[in-house]
Design a protein that fits this description.
It contains four helices and two strands. The chain has about 180 residues and is an all-alpha fold. A two-stranded antiparallel sheet has the order 1-2.
Amino acid sequence: MSRNSETRYTGTAMLLHWLLALAIIGAFGMGLYMADLPLSPTRLKLYNWHKWAGVTILALSALRLLWRLSHRPPADLPMPAWQARAAHLTHGLLYLAFFAVPLSGWAYSSAAGFPIVWFGVLPLPDFVPVDKPLAESLKELHEALAWALAGLVALHLGAVLQHLLIKKDGLMQRMLPGAR
């Protein structure tokens, strides 16, 4: 499929980008907050919300990937080849993390013996069998992947700020609804 000759992303691509961004920030913040809470109804409620957010992130990621594969983004802005390669690598790693973080959380929850019931309505199958030592390893993996995703998001935001404040090349307007 050829590159989109337009200078902006589609409305659907923008919507999926910003929904996923908000969901990831919210789930990460909730994960940080709930992890240090003592066992309580509040902690259990937040763990369920965190799981629901993770499943939602997984679904949004699948939709976003399908959209991205069938709708090419606008052509790259002029930049040095190394920057274009770094941008493409970062985006690829972001997509990988969009799937790896929630899937590792789902696996952790399954191995720990805590089922996921999406929004309290849709029970999801266990991803792995109950295995407490495996659960501990998967918990560490989930946390490490979440931090890696946070680092990639920070890198992405740094590049956006560089384009917005230093280069002033209009990159940000490509992903902002209503901007021209």
